[in-house]
Automatic annotation (TrEMBL):
Coiled coil: none
Protein name: Cytochrome c, mono-and diheme variants
Domain Cytochrome c stretches: 39-147, 189-295
Keyword terms: Heme, Iron, Metal-binding
GO molecular-function terms, A-Z: electron transfer activity; heme binding; metal ion binding
Record-linked Pfam families: Cytochrom_C, Cytochrome_CBB3
SUPFAM superfamilies: Cytochrome c
Gene3D superfamilies xref list: Cytochrome c-like domain (1.10.760.10)
Length: 304
């Protein structure tokens, strides 16, 4: 027994050390965003709209200009618990007013806080990891122009073991990918832009793609529809076997909220349309082109 323990204990220590290293938060290079050049606020607003920042981080029930006060507080249910959007206004105490550009880059690209702690993937950094450096710089510039809020961020309601932040390093190892789902370097300008808007900024797959038992996106059923995380209803598929709209129909829906069947966007999608309606027309056309180019998934959606 002693001999067995002499073998097991060192092996366990080595395994624990490897796990600790593998789950460590990763960050951008220290000089990655050291350029003295400032961002363009106007471009930053476009990134803000495309990424839907205000949709999640405005206070519950906010209307009009109050939607630009990113006080947080909205709750997002999931099979793992309820996640509450934090205050990301420029307030130095309760928001992100003290964040550097590198802090924002680490949050968006790696899901890591300024304190070096993993963020829960309810914050869609699995999509934002594709963001270009210039968009991050411009978004940072725009966020600094928004009103500050002193509302404290509210805690998440996530129980054990899902509340173990370090374990998210293992989750990221499995599911935080830096490759595109719609692959290829010969997509053309419009499809390439559409891919960026859908897979990166718009993070459309976070809702429209089913997840596995660990909450990772099932890429084999990309955009194939999924159960609503609230447990009520389903989020529709966008693949060509389920969505028969033309590219013109899709672009018009993203501008007006009206469907070819004379219905209108509701629920969370109404907020998405509020953002896409403010994008350039060519961006809505690019999103539509991407959706029309989606392949039929290999399996039907079964959800979490």
């Amino acid at each position: 027994m002693v001999k067995v323990l002499r073998l097991i204990v060192p092996a366990a220590i080595v395994a624990a050390g490897i796990a600790w290293v593998m789950t460590a938060p990763k960050t951008v290079a220290e000089d990655a965003f050291a350029s003295p050049e400032g961002g363009e606020v106007a471009r930053g607003e476009t990134v803000f709209r495309a990424a839907g920042c205000g949709t999640c981080h405005a206070a519950p029930g906010a209307e009009g200009d109050d939607k630009l006060v990113l006080a947080g507080g909205q709750s997002f249910p999931s099979p793992f618990g309820a996640f509450t959007a934090p205050n990301i206004s420029p307030d130095p105490d309760h928001g992100i007013g003290e964040w550097s550009l590198q802090d924002l880059a680490n949050a968006l690209l790696h899901g890591v806080s300024p304190e070096g702690v993993h963020y829960f993937p309810a914050f869609p950094y699995t999509s934002y990891t594709h963001m270009g450096d210039r968009d991050i710089v411009d978004l940072y510039a725009y966020l600094q122009t928004l009103p500050a809020s002193s509302a404290p961020s509210q805690p998440h309601e996530v129980g054990f073991p899902f509340n173990i932040r370090r374990s998210l390093g293992g989750w990221k190892f499995l599911f935080l990918k830096d490759d595109w789902v719609m692959d290829g370097n010969d997509l053309g300008a419009e499809l390439t832009r559409g891919r960026y808007l859908v897979e990166a900024l718009g993070h459309c797959a976070e809702c429209h793609t089913p997840r596995n038992a660990l909450g990772g996106l099932d890429r084999s059923r990309w955009m194939a529809g999924a159960p609503d995380p609230s447990g009520k209803g389903t989020i529709p598929a966008l693949t060509p076997d389920k969505l028969s709209w033309s590219a013109t129909d899709i672009a018009y829906y993203l501008e007006s909220g009206f469907t070819p069947e004379f219905d209108s966007a509701g629920g969370h999608m109404a907020a998405v349309v509020e953002n896409t309606s403010r994008l350039p027309a060519e961006d809505r056309a690019a999103i539509a082109a991407y959706v029309k180019a989606l392949p039929v998934p290999v399996a039907a959606s079964t959800g979490y």
